[in-house]
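Supplementary Methods, section 5.1.

A reviewer requested that the exact input to the structure prediction be made available. We therefore reproduce it here, unchanged from the version used in the analyses.
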Amino acid sequence: MTYDEFNQFCASFPATTHVVQWGNSDVWKVGDKVFAIGGWSNKSAPAFTFKVSDMNFDFLSHCEGYRPAPYFANRGMKWIQQIDSEGKRREELEYYLTQSYRIVAGSLSKKRQVELGIDCDSFD
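The structure derived from this sequence is encoded token-by-token as follows.
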């Protein structure tokens, strides 16, 4: 997945905003809370960072092509960075980006979800 494709995918979720910050990274938010980041890699290949469940954090932390996200994971937060998005990994990335959006949007207050037009009940 390229950064342009990443940005198109993240823009497809309801009530998202995009900013460029943190070392020229593409940062995607819902309700002013970050759910995905494109960038933060020391290599020329794209890297994508997203929030995950506890179980997926434990699993992905030990999978090739993934690592605990710099800056987030070392502060106890459950964020993973995908550093290989070739082939089947693109489908995995789309799945984990969707889950990250759901986790973050679902953590917003019900009032804020209504204000943003997000129906978290439809996530399940």
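Helices lie at 3-11, 54-60, 88-106, 110-116. These observations are discussed further in the main text.
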